Amino acid sequence: MTRPARRVVVTGMGCVSSIGTGVEEFTEGIKAGLSGVSEIASFDAGDFPVRLAGEVQGFDPAAIVRTIDLDDWGRTAHFAAAAARLAMDDSGLELDEETRATAGAIIGTTNGEAPSVDTLTHQWLDGGPSTLSADVAHRISAGNIAAAAATELGLYGETVVIPTACSAANYAIGSAADKIIAGEADVMVAGGADSVNRFTHAGFLSLGAVADGVPRPFDQDRSGIVTAEGGAVLVLEELEHAKRRGAHIYAELLGYGLSCDAHHIVHPDAESIATCIRRAHANSGIVAEDVDYICAHGTGTPTNDITEVTATRLVFGDEHPPMSSIKSMLGHTMGAASGFGAIACCKAIEDAFLPPTINLRTVDPAFGEGIDFVGNGAKGAAVRVAQNHGFAFGGNNAITIFGAYADGEPVGAGEGPR
Amino acid sequence: MSAAAELQISDVSVLSAAGVGLDALRARLREPGAAPGGAPAEDITQYEGLPGQVAAVPDFTITDYVPRKGTKNLDRTTKLGLAAATLLKRSLDERAEIGEASWASTGIAMGTVVGSLRSSVDLDIDIIEGKGTDLVNPAVFPNTTMNCCASQIAIWHSFRGPNSTLANGTVSALSALAYAARLIRCGHAERMLVGGVEELSPHTAWGIRLKKEVQESVFIGEGAALVALEPAGADASPAVATVTACEVMFAPERTQAGRTAALRRAVDRARAAAEAAGTGIDLVLPGNVGTALQTAEESALDHVDAERVDVRAAVGECGGALGAMQLAAAVALGRPGTGVLITGVDESGAVAAAVLTIEEHA
Fold first, then answer.
1. Do A48 and B186 touch (CB under 8 A)?
2. A255, β-bridge pairs
3. pTM over 0.90
4. What pLDDT is stored for residue A4 in this prediction?
5. How many CA atoms lie within 13 A of A197 on its CB side?
6. What radius of gyration, in Å, describes the C-alpha atoms of chain B?
7. Helices (H) then strands (E): counts for chain A
8. Sequence-distant (≥ 6) Cβ neighbours of residue B255 within 8 angstroms
9. What is the separation of C-alpha B316 from the centre of its chain, rounded to a whole number of angstroms?
10. How confident is the model at residue A267 (pLDDT cuts 50, 70, 90)?
11. CB–CB of B146 and A142 under 8 A?
12. ipTM, two decimals
């Protein structure tokens, strides 16, 4: 395909995570291989055999946001608004009226305001339907998660939530980039947010998909996910707009791809994921050999990891780039996961390192030889192109591709068929 | 909008409190006074004491649309969306020769407020009362994720194109239209089934009544509607309408004036696109009549001189399906060769304005 005339760069990043708030602290946490997994505190987990989650301890949105009234919004919206504020501050962008008029927020989520739904459920059980709190009912509309971010930043452009489960942030980032490429906006904020909650924890437990301890992606003894939470948001900006203001450019968003398994609601499909990778490459104007690092979906369930490696083998064969799972540190932050992956990719490119897979003792021999899962801690490596995976229930696959920004032709330009 | 970027609506399907199909919707739009059909019998006690009326899709049974096998654990949101997709595929197959490969590349953009709220609450009750996962049926857990309906449609019909779900309150389906249009224009999709879905449940109904955003005189409905969105062109199916504009914007000021200003910007952009396309606005389908946001919407439309029809009066309050009902109503009521302006404001601050130009031979 023809490369679009308008290019999209990442000029701001913000996040609230279990291993750090803000892109610097988060990156230090990734480089140090910190674990954000702890005993569940946000709800009574006493009835469950497994009580670990990647909660953001002591999250204090009031210390971050400047505009929104926190009482108007639920916890997931707080994550989105806080991450969006941090990202916008990080970008150094002073939004003028012209930019503000078309800038919007597109945020992905899996469970939306699930903790608020849990509150309503208790009210329903305790007092019957007529005792539901109208204030809580107001908060549960999933669209509020993006609305809180746009309200926080004073944006007038297209604002929407894409609740495509655990690949949602990549959907959001991709669509926000398309808005910029299509000339509908010069600046967009995009990412994902989710909150730890009772029924996601129980639901994954009922599927047998929750780890009996810490998450161990790619380990032969991996036993599942650890549910987690947080918010991760990027500021995407049209390249010339960014250059005119002398913005710091983390990386270029080269493109993205989507695919749908149309196969099974919870079991992933390797062929469809391989299709998604190829579409992402084609959309980005790169070939497989250009990819230096894969930020895996890497949930740590027995099924996901083997399916994901089967898919990447279909595309990369024996020349497989290093691939790690930041879920080993964060747990599975659901709709925010590929947003965190996007930040990790951009920092991997900028700081020339590979994020580690922690808790990895023995790589599953089923994956075959020759893949570096970065199991011995972060390490230095030049990363020009990073591929960020996001897969979801329902077979909603989305992959974003980030490239080192060069003042000239984009990475991969002229090297592959487009 | 350049001719190359022009997108058409090739077909429409709709299930609402008015019944199934465009004819039933058209009849109810023209005579909205008809009494709604009430709640499904199995839930009737949970509506006791609820102010106002409710109305389900009459006599809805998923096995009227798809074979029984595999339907047991589907939630009502998914069933309604699946029925709408099945009707749309069947109808478009009858009107145009769509090959299997073309259907296999078809995607979905489904609007929803919060997915199947009932599925989430019921699962949560099972967890609380079962003290853990003892009462949890793992087969119904995926119903609590908001993308369940769109993904199940893809599974049932082998639609492998981009599978997406959009949440933006009552403007969700118009957000889905904007999203799907961008996917097609940017080369990610070929044909998209676009719309919205909402299930009637005691949970949703009580939530709506307690919030008091919607007047009690408006009944609470449900339904699903989808349109087939494709590039206009030689190979395309016959069109029933062209998407002349679809603007989704936002009001960060949480005031009536802020919302009016935001919707007016969206309306003005949509009207400018219509004017550039030579389309005159002949009909307006506002989304907020009978709600707390009615005045904000009316103020934004005060310079638009055309007939108004209140779609919600015909189909009831139906959340994520409302915008899709408006799209279906535009096709049902629009006069050939003219434009229909569809608007909506959500309490979150999201606003939308779209113009469909109705085909001469629709």
1. no
2. A401
3. yes
4. 62
5. 27
6. 19
7. 13, 15
8. none
9. 12
10. confident
11. yes
12. 0.97
